[in-house]
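Exam revision sheet. Question 4 asks you to relate a sequence to its structure. Input first:
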Amino acid sequence: MSIWWSLHLRREAASVPLARRLLLGTMETAGVDPDISHDLSVALSEACANAVEHGGDAATEDYRVTAFINGDTCRIEVTDSGPGFRERARRPKRPERSALPDHAPPPPMAAPAPAQAEHGRGLFLIEALTDHVRYRNRTGRRGAVVSFDKILKWKEEVPLMAS
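Answer key, structure tokens:
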């Protein structure tokens, strides 16, 4: 099975639940497990909220959400026209324990925002709820792209999988 859709949305708060509801409806219709659908909807909400808040100036009024279901994988991309990701020290990935000398502690991970903070947790949530995340600046244009993948699990007797 293969499904994809793309939305061009205004950079306003009301667009976030619209994108989330469309994703949840697609997942329900396709027969995706509700827990997987929930994780993807939270990740999408965070990516859209970032695009609304950071995705441009007064002259850039929209952003794009594209979702692909291809086989057992869902990929979602959120693209905006903002300043993009600034060059900054990226959080190091924790190497496999076997790749470290026995005496070496694992490298420290960047700490997420405090639990009571109202901002700064979105990218951490996306990373925690999905299987693979990519952040990049658009090539040759202003803007950022956040894309993430999740392996899908299916409910029993999925209507679209039977066809």
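Marking note for examiners. The two ends are 9 Å apart (CA to CA).
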